[in-house]
From TrEMBL:
It holds the Pfam family Cytochrom_B_C. Keywords: Electron transport, Heme, Iron, Membrane, Metal-binding, Respiratory chain, Transmembrane, Transmembrane helix, Transport. The keyword Signal does not apply. GO terms for cellular component: respiratory chain complex III. This is Cytochrome b. The chain crosses the membrane at residues 40-68, 89-109, 124-146, 158-179, 191-213, 244-261, 303-322, 334-353, 365-387. Residues 225-395 form the Cytochrome b/b6 C-terminal region profile domain.
Length: 420
C-alpha cells in the first residue's frame, strides 16, 4: 500500500489519517497485479457484486412501501406498481435483478468449474462462494413469498414442509418456521425480516470472499500461477475498463428485460392473491431452483429426496478434494472437457425436468439426470484424476499470450504439475 501517491491535498489529508485510497489501490487499482490473460468470463465476479448492490438499493426502496401482512401484502405490491412514483420500475428491476443475479453467479460458478478455480490454494475461496450461493437461495426463496400470490403461498407451504422429513424434530421445525400451524401472518412477517437482513449477511461473506481472492490472486484460463512481472498487468486501468464494458452490456440486457419482458421469468399464478383453499394445478419454484427441485422430486422417499437436494449443493464444498488432477484448467484436459459439456447438458435437463409435472417420462429423465449429477462428482472426476493424461502446460502465462514472450522461461521444459 505504501506505493500509492497523490498530489491532491484533500486525498493526502484523508490518506494520512485513514489510508483508504492506498487500500483501494492495493485491492482494485494499479497496485493489484492480475494475470494478463483474463477473458470476459472473469467479468462475472464484479457483475455479481454490482447486482448485489442494485438488489439491496431497490429492496430498501420497496420495503418503505411494502406491508408485511397477509391481508395487505398483495394489495401493497399492486399499490407499489400503480400508485408509487416509479414503483413499477423499482419492482421490475428488483424482481428481474434477482434472476439476473443467479444468471451471473451460475456463469461465475461454471467458469470456476471449468478452469479449476476450486483447486489449491483457492479451496477456501471456492467454499465461501458456495456459502454465498446458499445464502442467495435462502434470500430469494423468502423474497418470492412476499408478494403473497398463489405461487408465493403454495411455494412456501411446499418448501417449508420439506423439513417435516427430518427424523424426530421435523414437525417442530416446521411449526417454528411457520410461527404457527400453517403458513400465515407470522410466516410472512419473519420471511420479510429475514429477506431484508440476509443481503447484508451476503455482503459480509462477499468481503471474506474478496479477502480470500486477494490472498493468492485470480486464477486464469490456462490455470498456472504468475511467475514474474511479464505474466501480470495492473488491475487498473486494464481490467476496470474491461469490467466497465461488461457492465454496460449487462445493464443493456437487464434494461431490455425490465422494459420489454418484465414478467417473462415469473409465473402468472403469482398475480392471483394467495388462497389457502385453492391449490394451483402445478406448483413450481422460480427457474433458478428448478434443477434442485427436479432432484428433490426424482426420489420417491421424502427424506432421501431432501438429502439429495441439499447434497447436490453440499457436494460442491468437497469438490477440491474430489478432483485431484494437478492440472487446473479444462483447456488442457481433453476428457474432462467432454464430461464437463455432458455435465452442463445434465444441468439444463434437470432444470427443464423440474418445470414439468413429476410423472411419466419426465420423472424418469429427472431420475437419470440426478444420478448422473452425483456420478459426475463422485465417480467421474476422481477417476479422471487418475487415468486422464493432460496436455503439456505452457511454461508461463506470457508464453501463449505473447507467443513465446516469456523471456528465458520460454525454453524451459513444460511441467505437468504447477505449484498450487
Amino acid at each position: 500500500m505504501s506505493g500509492f501517491q497523490s498530489n491532491n491535498a484533500v486525498i493526502k489529508w484523508v490518506e494520512h489519517r485513514m489510508p483508504i485510497f492506498s487500500f483501494l489501490d492495493h485491492s482494485v487499482g494499479s497496485g493489484y497485479p492480475s494475470p494478463r490473460n483474463l477473458s470476459y468470463l472473469w467479468n462475472f465476479g464484479s457483475l455479481a457484486g454490482i447486482t448485489l448492490v442494485i438488489m439491496i438499493l431497490t429492496g430498501i426502496l420497496l420495503a418503505m412501501q411494502y406491508t408485511a401482512h397477509v391481508d395487505y401484502a398483495f394489495e401493497s405490491v399492486e399499490r407499489i406498481m400503480r400508485d408509487v412514483n416509479y414503483g413499477w420500475l423499482i419492482r421490475y428491476i428488483h424482481m428481474n435483478g434477482g434472476s439476473f443475479f443467479f444468471i451471473v453467479v451460475y456463469i461465475h460458478i461454471f467458469r470456476g468449474l471449468y478452469y479449476g478455480s476450486y483447486k489449491a490454494p483457492r479451496e477456501l475461496l471456492w467454499m465461501l462462494g458456495v456459502v454465498i450461493l446458499l445464502l442467495m437461495m435462502a434470500t430469494a426463496f423468502m423474497g418470492y413469498v412476499l408478494p403473497w400470490g398463489q405461487m408465493s403461498f403454495w411455494g412456501a407451504k411446499v418448501i417449508t414442509n420439506l423439513f417435516s422429513a427430518v427424523p424426530i424434530f421435523g414437525e417442530q421445525i416446521v411449526v417454528w418456521l411457520w410461527g404457527g400451524f400453517t403458513v400465515d401472518n407470522p410466516t410472512l412477517n419473519r420471511f420479510f425480516a429475514l429477506h431484508y437482513l440476509m443481503p447484508f449477511i451476503i455482503v459480509g461473506v462477499v468481503i471474506l470472499h474478496i479477502w480470500a481472492l486477494h490472498r493468492f490472486g485470480s486464477n486464469n484460463p490456462i490455470g498456472i500461477d504468475t511467475k514474474g512481472p511479464q505474466d501480470s498487468i495492473p488491475f487498473h486501468p486494464y481490467y476496470t475498463v474491461k469490467d466497465a464494458f461488461g457492465l454496460g452490456v449487462f445493464l443493456l440486457v437487464l434494461a431490455a428485460v425490465v422494459f420489454y419482458a418484465p414478467n417473462y421469468m415469473g409465473h402468472p399464478d403469482n398475480y392471483i392473491p394467495a388462497n389457502p383453499l385453492s391449490t394451483p394445478a402445478h406448483i413450481v419454484p422460480e427457474w433458478y431452483f428448478l434443477p434442485f427441485y427436479a432432484i428433490l422430486r426424482s426420489i420417491p422417499d421424502k427424506l432421501m429426496g431432501v438429502i439429495a437436494m441439499f447434497g447436490s449443493i453440499a457436494i460442491l464444498f468437497v469438490l477440491p478434494w474430489l478432483d485431484r488432477s494437478p492440472v487446473r484448467s479444462g483447456r488442457f484436459r481433453p476428457l474432462f472437457r467432454l464430461f464437463f459439456v455432458l455435465f452442463m447438458v445434465d444441468a439444463v435437463v434437470l432444470g427443464y425436468a423440474g418445470s414439468q409435472p413429476a410423472e411419466g417420462a419426465w420423472l424418469r429423465i429427472a431420475q437419470v439426470a440426478t444420478a448422473y449429477y452425483f456420478i459426475h462428482f463422485l465417480v467421474i472426476l476422481p477417476l479422471l484424476s487418475v487415468f486422464e493424461t493432460p496436455k503439456p502446460l505452457p511454461t508461463s502465462i506470457s508464453e501463449p499470450v505473447l507467443k513465446g514472450g516469456g523471456g528465458s522461461m520460454a525454453g524451459a521444459p513444460a511441467k505437468p504439475m504447477e505449484k498450487a
